[in-house]
Give the backbone structure.
Amino acid sequence: ENIQYIYNWVDYKKFHRANAAEIEAFYDKYHLSRDYKYIISVSQDWDNESSRYKDAICLAKKLPFDFRLVLVGRVSRGSCIEAPIIHISYINGYRELSAAYSMAEAYIHLSVEDTFGKVIAEAMACGTVPIVFNSTACSEIPGPYGFVVAPHDVDAIVKSLPRLPEMQKESDNIIQYVLNNYDYHTNAQQYVDLYHKILYGR
């Protein structure tokens, strides 16, 4: 029995590197100080009891003095986002989300449950370095352009931060990697080809 892996895709016509004006507008809208470097994580919702949030709290407390963690997404009922984390409950549209990805030093994905974490590919489409857990397919998405650490290993995330400037030099290659591997037309065609092979043996 043959097994074929087909990746999901990201709309890189919507998610792409924001320009300086868009990034400055994002700083101003969400009152972000230019004195800090930001790492960002996006989720549909944040729950105080989830491992993602517990890892986020631990990470925020261990970050270097000039870094801040930004969590984007609604907060579940009965939960709250604690300092020193910066919380943005809702971002309006893909252009603003692209600006959020683009202003960040890195995109941090704290899930151990996602299959294909599309937000990882979205951030990469903006040239942002991803840091992900070695869990499910998330560890495959960065390819050679990111950092993969053991699940819940917050210390390993912190240790990877000094290496970000070197990886950020690969920003154009990160974007090209998304175009090469997570293109809608290419990957959707793989489904069509697979169905033809199953139905017609070719």
Remarks:
- The first helix runs from residue 20 to 29.
- The helical segments are 20-29, 51-62, 93-103, 118-125, 154-160, 164-168, 171-181, 184-200.
